Structures
1.
Amino acid sequence: MNLKEENSINLAWLAKRIKSLRSESGLTQLQFLHETNIHIGRIEQGKRDISFTTLCKICDYFKISLEDFFANERLHKKNHNS
């Protein structure tokens, strides 16, 4: 797998994870925007990467640690590489 493919897979995982957190909280993208000033529409589509500070703000908003955010990522990589 080349770097571009790996980046696409990682962005897709990130998008799915953020969308899952938002959906589980019962928030719309517009509500999330109003409460955080973070526009996540393109992030959730996997079309936009985010900065570390934005990821930290998202984790703070959902009251989870970065470790919790990435907990399922290890399983994703393990299953994807199998």
2.
Amino acid sequence: MIDFDLLAPPVLSRSGVLRDEPLRTDTARQVAGWPSARLVVVDPEGRTPVEWDAAPQGGFRAADAGSWDVAAGGARLKTRATSGDAPTPDAVLLGERDHIAYWAVRGKPDLLAGDDPSEWVDLRMTGAVLDALGAGLFTTAVAALNWHDSARFCSRDGSPTHPANAGWHRHCEAAGHEEYPRTDPAVICLVHDGGTGPDARVLLARQPVWPARRYSVLAGFVEAGESLEACVLREIHEEVGATVSDVRYLGSQSWPFPRSLMVGFHAVADPSVTLVPADGEIAEAFWATRADVRAALGEGDWSASGEAPFLLPGSVSIARSMIEAWAAL
């Protein structure tokens, strides 16, 4: 059984801020730091303004505080200054960096203030090329604000809820119940044949809603009472009829669309067993050689316009990190 690790942390798992829980209850510190704080403004479509540098050169380097950063090029978030004397009730404290607090709020381009709407992009477009600070801030902002949008009423009695604890829980108006941000765990698994060399094979699949030639590895949500490893076995069998073994953890990253945590694994299956794609869930599934995967990676990602037989996900997805790690063996 071959084993391998990711070549670098998944891009949306990087962060450059201190987000300790005591910061969220220290109202005196929040008020004192508000005049110098910065706002990450996210519109209802999940976009925020970004300043682009030269095209990224690829690769990663170690950054401070145990995080990771894009090696060269990329993009930076454009944050706003605060106004008023204290944090607004709807603001979410994302964390601190170099004694500066960062908060997330809903908003839109302010044309009177000189905002350029063309600079507003979503996390899927820019997450892979933001530095660690920007990636962590943007990912957390989208995840937290998505939760607030869907948690305005108590799940117990339906009464209105109000944000508290610097945006990290909501209080039920009727009975004071506390609601906390929801994260839905999902597994994503790279299934391979356990072989080495250019002829080793990996299982790729395409959902019915994806255009032709766009493929990725298999994924699915964890059910109540189910372990991550058990979910891998169940999902792979349900989706393509394959039985996997030697399930091993690779890494994880937030996927706030709207509130998932993608937990990555790799596992082994027998490519001689006939694949049975699940009706309505998997349009096509096939085994690709390492040589073909390397060629597809060289074509770019799903947005490529070439004539490659198949295209693979972009760098913002943990799927890309997993495929690249396997292809590098």
